[in-house]
Amino acid sequence: MTSSQSTTSAALAADPAPLPGGISLAHQVAPLVEALVADATQLRLAISTGPLGCRIVDAGISVPGSLEAGRRIAEICLGGLGKVALVPGGRFSPFDTLVSVTTTDPVTACLASQYAGWSLSHGDFFALGSGPGRAMAAVEPLFAELGCRDHGDHVALVLETGVTPPAEVVQEVASRCGVAPTAVTFILTPTSSLAGTVQIVARVLEVALHKAHALHFPLEHIVDGIGSAPVAPPSPDFLTAMGRTNDAVLYGGDVQLFVRGSSEAAQDLAKRLPSLASRDYGRPFGEIFAGYDCDFYKVDPLLFSPARVTVTAMEQGTSFTAGGFDANLIARSFGV
């Protein structure tokens, strides 16, 4: 952890502010997590006790997992503030099933919970944590900007990994969140799994929120949002699976944001938000990633956004659309 993260965490701990509306993400997701565990057999999940007594939900390492598990895990990632559905689309035949995401509080659901922003590492282990536990730890500088922190008795974190976190990571999460290790639940979703595919593609709305934030659009002006992207076929090869889930969003994702403010501001956001605005646009993500020596930090950060974006200026009743889908690239990426 960096010194700036420690300072941020300490400041928030000294003067914590509740999440908007006085909600608790930890409280919201508790019944969702318990329902996931209760339905583990039918969802093809494995539940076990991990280091220091934490609870491990295996969604694709030693068990197959399922699309439905991925859908429910995605709702946990959203902090219980959004709905995820698998719906018919017809956008990219034969990949006609879309992951659809809606939330009435996109900033809290996507940025304070779903965004994979908590870096967890020890020795050879590394994973990015997403889900409501992030808002309890509040170690990321983003939470200083959002000005909020969550509190709860239990922690739920989703890790895109195929390895159980070691005791040192479990202890770090518990300590940062102010709970015992036995109160921590890790939901593990490998990229190559069915559940991993769905929960990653379900970030289509989140990447739009994250890029809007990077473009310095006022987050308080974002009122509502909806997004969708095609379900990518999984692959046993990690790089192929990662490429497909990214391509599903970059070249097949569709998002509509409903915002306050002027039509000019909405039009400018729509123009700059799609992945088409990136210098790296136009090739499968796997090729882009390999071309940068598999270094995420060399990829243009503006690439990580939906293919098509519509921004509606609610006070004027005007909408602006930019970007577009690339069916040929989706087919190429998905192995047709």
From TrEMBL:
Top EC category: hydrolase
Gene3D superfamilies: Methenyltetrahydromethanopterin Cyclohydrolase, Chain A, domain 1, Methenyltetrahydromethanopterin Cyclohydrolase, Chain A, domain 2
Listed EC numbers: 3.5.4.27
Keywords in alphabetical order: Cytoplasm, Hydrolase, One-carbon metabolism
CC terms in the record's Gene Ontology section: cytoplasm
Compartments in which it is found: Cytoplasm
Principal localisation: cytoplasm
GO molecular function: methenyltetrahydromethanopterin cyclohydrolase activity
A Pfam family per the record: MCH
Pathway: One-carbon metabolism; formaldehyde degradation; formate from formaldehyde (H(4)MPT route): step 3/5
GO biological process per UniProt: formaldehyde catabolic process; one-carbon metabolic process
Catalysed reactions, semicolon-separated: 5,10-methenyl-5,6,7,8-tetrahydromethanopterin + H2O = N(5)-formyl-5,6,7,8-tetrahydromethanopterin + H(+)
Family recorded in the similarity comment: Belongs to the MCH family.
NCBIfam families: one_C_mch
Protein task: Catalyzes the hydrolysis of methenyl-H(4)MPT(+) to 5-formyl-H(4)MPT.
HAMAP family the record matches: McH
Protein name stated in the entry: Methenyltetrahydromethanopterin cyclohydrolase
Gene: mch
